[in-house]
Design goal:
The chain has a domain of 93 residues: Double Stranded RNA Binding Domain, CATH 3.30.160. By secondary structure, it is of the alpha+beta class. The mean pLDDT is 87. The chain has a 3-stranded antiparallel β-sheet with strand order 1-2-3, with helices on one face. The longest helix is centred in the middle third of the chain and has 20 residues. InterPro entries: Pep_chain_release_fac_I (IPR000352). This is Ribosome-associated protein.
């Protein structure tokens, strides 16, 4: 993943935001929409593209566009910074390879303890039976 190339491939669109801001909301387009085309990106290799398309399939449209929006702040510039940061966090999280699990054996002590508890439970159940004289 080449972050400089990916950063140059990002497309932004300013849209009118909803919510607090009074008349400013009606005049200023402070909401930012980030659009990233996963399929045509030169910053990702083919393996990374496939990985992104599988892990982020709920966030990627049918046209292979990853679309993120941010309207947390009244400032367009701050929203742009927030959305870029969030975008790279999502990318890194999706491309991170999980740690391989190593199979381990149950210790002898733990196994003996389990068997003793089972025997104790069996004895308790055996003592519930009616005695036949």
């Amino acid at each position: 993943m080449n972050t400089e190339i990916i950063a140059s491939e990002l497309n932004f669109k300013a849209v009118r935001s909803s919510g607090a801001g009074g008349q400013n909301v009606n005049k200023v387009s402070s909401k930012m929409v980030l659009i990233f085309d996963v399929a045509t990106s030169f910053g990702l290799n083919e393996e990374e593209k496939v990985l992104l398309q599988t892990k982020l399939k709920t966030k990627i449209s049918q046209d292979n566009l990853l679309i993120l929006t941010c309207d947390e702040d009244r400032s367009q510039l701050k929203n742009k910074r927030i959305i870029i940061k969030r975008f790279f966090e999502i990318l890194e999280k999706a491309l991170a390879k999980p740690k391989e699990r190593k199979a381990t054996k149950i210790s002898k002590g733990a196994n003996e303890k389990r068997i003793q508890e089972k025997k104790k439970a069996g004895e308790i159940k055996a003592n519930r039976k009616k005695l036949d004289f």
